[in-house]
Automatic annotation (TrEMBL):
SMART domains: Transket_pyr (SM00861). The gene is pdhB. Its cofactor is thiamine diphosphate. Heterodimer of an alpha and a beta chain. The lineage of its organism: Eukaryota, Rhodophyta, Florideophyceae, Nemaliophycidae, Palmariales. It comes from Palmaria palmata (Dulse). The pyruvate dehydrogenase complex catalyzes the overall conversion of pyruvate to acetyl-CoA and CO(2). It contains multiple copies of three enzymatic components: pyruvate dehydrogenase (E1), dihydrolipoamide acetyltransferase (E2) and lipoamide dehydrogenase (E3). Keywords: Metal-binding, Oxidoreductase, Plastid, Potassium, Pyruvate, Thiamine pyrophosphate. It catalyses: N(6)-[(R)-lipoyl]-L-lysyl-[protein] + pyruvate + H(+) = N(6)-[(R)-S(8)-acetyldihydrolipoyl]-L-lysyl-[protein] + CO2. GO terms for molecular function: metal ion binding; pyruvate dehydrogenase (acetyl-transferring) activity. Residues 4-179 form the Transketolase-like pyrimidine-binding domain. This is Pyruvate dehydrogenase E1 component subunit beta. It comes from the Eukaryota.
């Protein structure tokens, strides 16, 4: 095991896959000589050269379209969005091309492309740089969507995404890049479609993903000291949702809280509640509670920005209310 920062874990995954497979390449703004805005591609240009670590103009629709074309010819491109919000400029390429070409070509083309980069609410990055785009892409057929949350799962999931023959949208949170954790020295790969049961418990199920996993665990540490015993699930896979793991937990606890940084209206929690109601409604002892961000553009002002997202104290209060209601 070795202590590794998340951005280093992502860099190691990219480097290992590029070394193993000459078809893997990186495309994006400042990914080459500069090493990426968050240093995920640091040192790769010196090792692999211009053709495999390609600096592009500021033209997301163009280089994303080029990467999709490269994938159609058999290459395995990794597109880095300097900020995932910028990839709204490539929404047409991601939806009409990446998501649909395998189907519309009758299976003649595979689209083995990873589109990755930082997103989420940072620290005073402003509204346009603080967007959570997971539900924008969730409605697109043909995509897989992953949200990493630790250095360990970041590395294992990125390696799996690079090897997958389908387009994968890979969300990293801008505030988690400096998160440090022991990860194995030997190679490992994690499944793209499985949730992680972070903590076993009996009182209720807390479902979360990305940065909110850490807010949830801060709350859980306090709750456990007060005698509560929640179960915590990190979704990891946002599309498809691992409803099997979620259903097994609900059949045990019968109470659910969903904690997300996504907007409340039409967010990940909204889709998850729909699937829970369809599949395990009779197991619920109370309606599902969702704790989501405010439905407003993220303010630049630091205090207002903090007020838009969920914090551990709100999670603690929601757990106590729900458990008390059941009692």
């Amino acid at each position: 095991m070795k202590k590794t920062l998340m951005f280093d874990a992502l860099r190691e995954a990219t480097d290992e896959e590029m070394d193993k497979d000459k078809r893997v390449l990186v495309i994006g703004e400042d990914v080459g000589h500069y090493g990426g805005s968050y240093k995920v591609t640091k040192g790769l240009h010196a090792k692999y050269g211009d053709l495999r670590v390609l600096d592009t103009p500021i033209a997301e629709n163009s280089f994303t379209g080029m990467a999709i074309g490269a994938a159609m010819t058999g290459l395995r491109p990794i597109v880095e969005g300097m900020n995932m919000s910028f990839l709204l400029l490539a929404f047409n390429q991601i939806s009409n091309n990446a998501g649909m070409l395998r189907y519309t070509s009758g299976g003649n083309f595979k689209i083995p492309i990873v589109i990755r980069g930082p997103g989420g609410v940072g620290r005073q990055l402003g509204a346009e740089h603080s967007q959570r785009l997971e539900t924008y892409f969730q409605a697109i057929p043909g995509l897989k969507i992953v949200a990493c949350s630790t250095p360990y799962n970041a590395k294992g999931l990125l390696k799996a995404a690079i090897r997958d023959n389908n387009p994968v949208i890979f969300f990293e949170h801008v505030l988690l890049y400096n998160l440090q954790e022991d990860i194995p020295l030997e190679e490992y790969v994690l499944p793209l479609d499985k949730a992680e049961v972070v903590k076993r418990g009996l009182d209720l199920t807390i479902i979360t993903y990305s940065r909110m996993r850490h807010h949830v665990m801060q709350a859980v540490d306090i709750l456990v000291q007060e005698g509560y015993n929640p179960e915590v699930i990190d979704l990891i896979s946002l599309k498809p949702l691992d409803i099997k793991t979620i259903a097994e937990s609900i059949k045990k606890t019968h109470l659910v809280i969903i904690v997300e940084e996504c907007m409340k209206t039409a967010g990940i929690a909204a889709e998850l509640i729909a699937q829970i109601n369809e599949q395990v409604f009779d197991e619920l002892d109370a309606p599902v509670v969702r704790l989501s961000s405010q439905d407003i553009p993220t303010p630049y002002n630091g205090k207002l920005e903090q007020a838009t997202v969920i914090h551990p104290q709100q999670i603690i209060e929601a757990v106590k209310r729900l458990v008390k209601l059941k009692a």
